[in-house]
Amino acid sequence: MPHPARIDRTGILHTARAMMELEGIDGLSVNRLAAALGVKPPSLYHHFTSKAALLRELNAETNAGLVKAMQTAPHTTDAPLPHKILAMALAYRAYAHEHPVSYGLAYTNVVAELRPDPEFLEKLALTLQVHIAELVGPGESLPALRGLWALVHGFVVLELGGQFQRGGNLDTTFEQVV
Q1: Closest Cα partner for 65 from 91, 89, 28, 85?
Q2: Which CATH architecture has domain 56-177?
Q3: Residues 12-38 pLDDT 10s
Q4: Structure pTM?
């Protein structure tokens, strides 16, 4: 008799993310995930108490990946401030394009229990706000951050949703508006 497959949180999350990116959030079910991992569905509950807990962890990973992408963006060390901010915005957009379903789950979700934890969102905000504060001053950095974040997020969501139908180069447009 073959031994059951060994699974861990990392493997579950990797498989769940890949499944979700290919088939959408509705394509990710506990039964399908268990089958993909070669285990019975109850085995997953040893690692995650519910599908919502799994999705929350995926959202936390998405947020961490987005922060890392922004922190490691090219031109974020010696470049002038506006170039650093643009590089981080470009990294944000690229990450969303690489993980559109995960990005949508983490940042367009209206279900409070599935949203990233506030501490993760704070880390994401501070990654950019530090540079904005250098540019506009600490007192104006929060409104400037909110405006830039709304612009970048809104652009990305509209772009991923295929809402920009009037032609033109979206890469150039993104750089111009940021």
Answers
A1: 91
A2: Orthogonal Bundle (1.10)
A3: 999 999 999 999 999 999 999 999 999
A4: 0.89
